[in-house]
Amino acid sequence: MKRGNKRVGIIFLTVILALAVLGPVIRDKKISEEENRTLAQRPELTFHGVLSGNFMKKYEAYVSDQFVGRSVWRIFHASLKRIGGNREENGVYLGKNGQLLEKIEPPKKEYVENTVRGMNDFQGRYPEVTMRMMLVPDAGEILQEKLPPLVRQASQTDMIEGVREELSPGIRWVEAQRVMEDHKEENIYYKTDHHWTGTGVFYAFLEYGKEAELPLDESAYKKYPVTTQFNGALSKTSGFRRGEKEKIELYLPKEDHTKYVVSYVENQKKRTSLYDEKQLDTQNGYQVFQGGNYSLLDIRTDVKNTRRLLLVKDSFANSFVPFLTPFYQEIVMVDPRYYAGNADELMDTYGINEVLFLYSGNTFFQDNNIGGFLKPVESGSS
């Protein structure tokens, strides 16, 4: 036993020494594909920053994020803790049957109040525009029976109902909570990722279709697997289930002749598909939908109607929007986390006559960007 412990200790020290030597000669990374987030960069050294303590805080975050081999270290660390019975790492629970569940975070009250107030004011400025809200509960809420024993979380159902009660009656509610509850025994969330699966999205789309009066035929869609090698962001963030491989499946119309052009406004590039197949071979296969998150996308179709939709969203909407193209002349997707402009400007520029807010619970209740995006454009002084 002692000999085994000594061997583990030698390996541990060797790894640490190697990482320390390699650290200074390897370039910093800007993005972690494994964790699907931006990494901290080396902070600027200033006199004020040192005195205030901000420099050291930022530098600690920088060292933590840019630590050479941090991916290997995270997996190693999670494995050791799991041996000791740990079932939580970096806000991710290892649940029953290998289901990974992102922790349900309590809402940031100030952010939520600002967001709801912004949505209500926005609707008041455009009473003639049809507005809808779809707030999707996370797997940690719907699949509570899969949580580790003794884990108790804040009720996201109560949070969602609270938002519904505070929203203006002029913003129509699309019921995602009930839909996900009704189909919880099916594969509606990935096991290793925080997003909903193609099946979960499809059921939510059918509900949206009823509210938006879309001419839908459920039997007109067929499910196609595009990869069986997906390992999601929760696995990479936590180090749990790194060997788990899942399917990504698309629900496509059996007959759809809709043509469209997707304009990536910020990057000034265009594509004729909402799918980026090359992403299936990267660390984040979910980016097969539009290639990931972008600040602003403009989708123009050959549909002969006058429906022009503004889709205010997080990444849950990336797999939802392909269902909408046969029914809208134009769809403008905006992610306020990355977009520096204003909602009023988009309404005017694109002649929007419908709006859909589509968010997952954890993002919506922690996001402080939505309210600012919805503020009215300030008129210049005369």
UniProtKB/TrEMBL annotation:
<protein>
    <recommendedName>
        <fullName>DHHW protein</fullName>
    </recommendedName>
</protein>
<dbReference type="InterPro" id="IPR025945">
    <property type="entry name" value="DHHW"/>
</dbReference>
<dbReference type="Pfam" id="PF14286">
    <property type="entry name" value="DHHW"/>
</dbReference>
